[in-house]
Write a structure and sequence with these properties.
single chain, alpha+beta, five-stranded mixed sheet, 7 helices
Length: 260
Amino acid sequence: MNKKEIVGIFLGAVAKQDTSTMREWANADYIQHNPFVPTGLEPFIGLLPVLKEHGTYAENVRMFQDGNFVFMHNIWHNAKPFGADEMVAFDIIRVDENGKVAEHWDAMTVLVKETASGRTQTDGPTTVEDLDHTEANKTLAVALIEDVLMGKNPGKITEYISAEQYDQHNPDIKDGLSGIVEAVQYLAAQNNMFKYTKIHKVLGEGNFVLTVSEGEWSGKKQVFYDLFRMKGGKIVEHWDVIQEIPITGLANDNGMFGGF
């Protein structure tokens, strides 16, 4: 059984409130990095009645695997316990050497109905291609973040992002390179540009790469989850979730980047 299948069984059990299956497929010391969820399997199980009361459930849009890590793009419905009726999330689950769900990281943001590009925050291709290009695509994603978003060499943006096609799913940015330029100009004028300071994790499968980065925006510490789709050695599509890193009301002290 592969890691995606193991994660699928565990998440299916969560959706059905099937605690016996959850205990079968996850470690008792399940490590939680969502800052508002207590660490450990039993404390997590203890939250299930709240989700049941609200009818909260996840719709998986994409699921990928890189080694022991399964990374997913999800829509959470009836998600008031997480902050809003509908939320968009990236979730990462580590499966250990015994085939047990061992650790979880995520970031969530409110689902936006009307976006600058007319695309949703989750639509677009889901099929993995070019498995033999996984490492090259991971390198490409890191180069984009270091040179453009960290400011080492912003002029190289056209080496990384396709001028012919760049489908944008950030709700505030339009399609194409021109959309990025327009957004940067606006944010710079507001003295509120995104600041990426550290890449904590890079996960990829074929033409899809997810990066987890730390930084600042609007004067607050943020976690940036960026999912890129590559084609022909260029980035042609982008999805993201940006979440403020909380400093109060924490349910665990594992940190949103701990374990990476």
